[in-house]
Amino acid sequence: MKKLALLATTLLLGLFAAECALRVFFPPFGREPVEKVHWLVEDPVAGWMNLPGFQHPGHPELVINDHGLRGPPIDDPKPTGGLRILCVGDSSTFGIHGRLPDVYLGNYPELLAERLAAIGTHGIEVINAGVIGQSSAHGLRFLTTRALELEPDIITIRFGYNDHADAWNPPLRTREIRWVPLRTLVDWTHDTQLTRLVMSAWQSRPDLHPTFLSVPWVDEDEFAYNLGRMAEFARDNEIHLLFIDYPLRKLERGGDERDLTIVKLAGMPSLEAFHQRHARYQEIVARVARQEGIPLIRTESRLRSANPPGFSDSDFVHPSPVGTRIIADAILEGLLELDWIPAANLPPGVRGPHQ
C-alpha cells in the first residue's frame, strides 16, 4: 500500500511539474486563428471559440469579453440575488449573417435583455454564448467545461443546422467521450496545458479522423444523444433548460446561387433534400424535448409568416432583424408562461399565468 501511495504521489508531482513547465514555456495549445473570421480561434477542447478580448475594428458593437462570449464583461461571481440566462447556439445566436461588412449584427440574446428591461424586470442578465458554425457537440462541450463558472439559472439551446452539414474539419467535431471516468477527467482538466496538449496531438493525426466533407458534424443518433445529455446536465445542476426550434425559410421561396452553394457544402443534392434532412433533425429536437420534459419554444410559424420577412435576404437560414426580435419575444413569452422569472421582478399585469 505504501508503495502504491508513493507511486501515485510521484506521478501527481510529475504531472504538476510538467503542467508548470508547459505553462511557463509554451502558449496555450491549439489556439490557431480560423481563416476569414478574425474573432474565432481553433481550440483542442472546444473545437473553436470566440477570441477573448476581441473587438471588431469596423463594428464597435461586436465585442468579445474575457470569457470568450459576445457582449460586455460578466461579473464574477454573479451578483447576489441576480438571475442569469445563458443562450447557447451557433451564428443565429451569436448574431451575424451575410458577408462582412454588409452584415446585420443584432442578436436575440441582446434583444431579450432589452425586452426584459422594457417590462420592468431587474437583476436579470442575458449572456450570449453563441459561436459561429458550432454544432450541438460543441455546445455540449461548452456546457460541461465552462458553463457552470458563469452560474446560469436558465439555459436556452438553439442547434440543428450545422449539425447535419458535412464537416469541413472533422478533427474538430468535438464528440463527447462516452466513458464517464475519462469524460469527467477531461471536463475537470480542460483548461490545463497537459489536457490541451493531448487533445491537440490527437486532432493533428489525420489518420484517426474521417476525411474532408465525408461525414456530418453530428449524425442523427449523436444529435439526439447530445440533446439528452444537455437535459441531464441541466437536471444535475438544477438549471432550467429551454430548447428553441430552428426553422428554415419556406422551401417555396427557392434559393439563389449562394443558397445552392450552402446546399452543396452540406453534401446535399438539392434544396429540397436539404430541407428534408433539416426537418428530421428538428423532429429529433421535438422528440427529445418530450422525452426529457424540456419546454420547446416554437418560432416557425411566426418567422415564416412575418412581414417584413423573418429571414435574412442573404440566405435561407439566418433570421432577419425582424426574425431576431420574434425569437427574443418567443423566449420571453415562454419564460413568463413557465414562471421562471421571479414575480418580484415583474410589474403588475406582466406576470406569468400561474402567479
Describe the fold and architecture:
The chain has 355 residues and is α/β, with parallel strands linked by helices. The protein has one domain: SGNH hydrolase (Rossmann fold). It contains 11 helices and 9 strands. A 5-stranded parallel β-sheet has the order 6-3-7-8-9, with helices on both faces. Strand 1 and strand 2 form a beta hairpin. Helix 3 crosses helix 11. The protein is globular, with a radius of gyration of 21 Å. It starts with a helix and ends in a 17-residue tail after the last helix.
In short:
This protein is an alpha/beta fold. It has a single domain, classed as 3-Layer(aba) Sandwich (Rossmann fold), CATH 3.40.50. The chain contains 11 helices and 9 strands.
Report strand order across the widest sheet.
6-3-7-8-9
Q: What is the CATH superfamily?
A: SGNH hydrolase
Number of strands: 9
Q: Which fold name fills CATH's third level, the topology?
A: Rossmann fold
CATH class: Alpha Beta
